[in-house]
Amino acid sequence: MSWGSELWDQFDNLEKHTQWGIEFVEKYTKFVKERSEIETNYAKQIRNLSKKYQPKKNSREEEESKYTFCKAFLTTLNELNDYAGQHEVIAENLTSQIIAELTRYLTELKAERKSHFHDGRKAQQHIESSWKQLESCKRRFERDCKEADRAQQYFEKMDADINVTKADVEKRSSHKARQQAQMRHQMAADSKGDYSSYLQKFNQEQNEHYYTIIPNIFQKLQDMEERRIERIGVCMKTFSDVDRQVLPIVGKCLDGMTNAAESIEPKTDSKQVVESYKSGFEPPGDVEFEDYGQTMKRTASDTSLSNSREGKEKPAGKSKGKLWPFIKNKNKLSLKLITLNSQVRNLIEGSGPEDFSHLPPEQRRKKLQGKLDELNKDIQKEMDQRDALTKMKDVYVKNPQMGDPASVDPRLSEIGQNIEKLQFEVQKFEGWLAEVEERMPSKSDSHRRSGIYETQNNTTVSNNCAQDRESPDGSYTEEQNSETQVKANPNPNPNPNPNPNPTSSTPEFDDEFDDEETLPTIGTCKALYPFEGHNEGTISVAEGELLYVIEEDKGDGWTRVRRNEDEEGYVPTSYVEVFLEANAKDS
């Protein structure tokens, strides 16, 4: 496809496109420059780290150098220093092979583009000037024809009004009118000839303009654009080759570290300890018995073995050898707080993936909705700016002395690209939001759960019971005083895992839960997605894995499941498909 034959009337669009191509080269140059700076800073930090842990020049160094693990560490530091050097090589090659080349090429590209569009504008101005001259000849021919018609009509009128009494005078006037008419007709004929010849000339110039001059200019622009794209491709290949070139040396550095680690010999280091601290003396012999008489009693030494035993022997207190991960006391509370603190920290620090998949469903939905609102505001801002620039361009078109309308086009093009990018982001986040809303529990389920709590007494007791049912994601706290706990005990607790005194810290109470009975199974579930349970109280599951449900979601987004007798924990409800047994649903 040739630009000259297919895009003969798209001069302005080609001008915008080639300008965008130059801006892309500038953007890629900036990208490579920032990558080079990152490599330089990384190499500097690695060198500083290696230097920081180099052994100090003192007497201790000689002793440390005798151990194989110290030698291995020193070798690792030296190899790490060489490793940093390879990142400096990457930075240097990026600068010399890409940044410098693209900077020089940009200067040439801008000059070539400017020259081609200058020729194009010159050709357009020429054809427009020829068109104006053609219009001028046409108007002159039209004017002369009208004048000739008027002169002929005047002559015919004078010739028709001749009378006998004024014959001589009328003959002279008629003769002048005839001459005037003939002259006008001659002028009209000359104008017609000029118009015809210039029309033929203009058609030839116009044909040459649209079939020869403009196609040649556009072909040059097409060749220039293709060379630009090819140059970008070469630079991108060089970008990867720069890394690939240092891989052998980086591999040697890593091999050196591995060899250093494999050279560590624990037995040799143990022998070195003997060599370093061996005194060479023989152990002392038996102490001879000294009898000072039967009546004397030897005073026990403060360092005697019996005293030391007696001093060390103390009554052992009660200790527990196991801690259950799901007991109904403050261990579960700490589990909840740890998980909550981790999630709050993630929200504050802004960590996590772009789709907020690390958050619970409700928090994820809120974050996605907030992101959509921000994107829509940005789109509206860009559209307002585009409208303002469009109005400014209209003013420039109507009043050229105020500014060049073409100067606004690059910015309008940039704003259009920004709007397209933002709209793409909106579609992406809307898809994630729809996915979250499909997986969230229905409102009817939420109303059913809330109805259970509304039927309880409207006191602090019902509030405490509801708080006891929080998942590891909840915001449960231990700020309930003992008086409230006592009041809550007589009332029925809707929680299937009752905890009459979660703040009690007496050993006798804790022992009641060491032999807790295993919760019954109320159904099964199938993992829809993989989940890595990093936090305390959660359990990792694989996609498609079948598990037993032992505690249903209480409205907090978490379901308690069991893999076998020893493995159980919480998983996000949105990550599993639950199949409850009939009796569990009825209850």
Short account of what is shown:
With 587 residues, the protein is mostly helical. Helices cover 66% and strands 4% of the residues. It has helices at residues 3-6, 11-52, 59-64, 68-160, 167-262, 266-277, 305-312, 330-349, 361-398, 409-439, 443-454, 460-468, 482-488, 507-511, 582-586, and strands at residues 523-527, 546-551, 558-562, 568-572, 576-580.
Structure description:
- The protein is mostly helical.
- Among the domains are: 3-264, Arfaptin homology (AH) domain/BAR domain (Substrate Binding Domain Of Dnak, Chain:A, Domain 2), CATH 1.20.1270; 372-438; 523-580, Roll (SH3 type barrels).
- It is 66% helix and 4% strand.
- The chain has 15 helices and 5 strands.
- The chain has a 5-stranded antiparallel sheet with strand order 4-3-2-1-5.
- A hairpin with a 5-residue loop joins β3 (558-562) and β4.
- α2 packs parallel to α5 (167-262).
- The longest helix is centred in the middle third of the chain and has 96 residues, at 167-262.
- It is elongated.
- 16% of the residues are buried.
- Residues 296-350 and 443-516 have low confidence and may be disordered.
- Keywords: Cell membrane, Coiled coil, Cytoplasm, Cytoskeleton, Endocytosis, Lipid-binding, Membrane, SH3 domain.
- Residues 438-448 have a biased composition (Basic and acidic residues).
- Belongs to the FNBP1 family.
- Residues 365-392 form a coiled coil.
- Residues 1-269 form the F-BAR domain.
Key terms:
5 strands; 15 helices; SH3 type barrels; 5-stranded antiparallel beta sheet; Substrate Binding Domain Of Dnak, Chain:A, Domain 2; 587 residues; mainly alpha
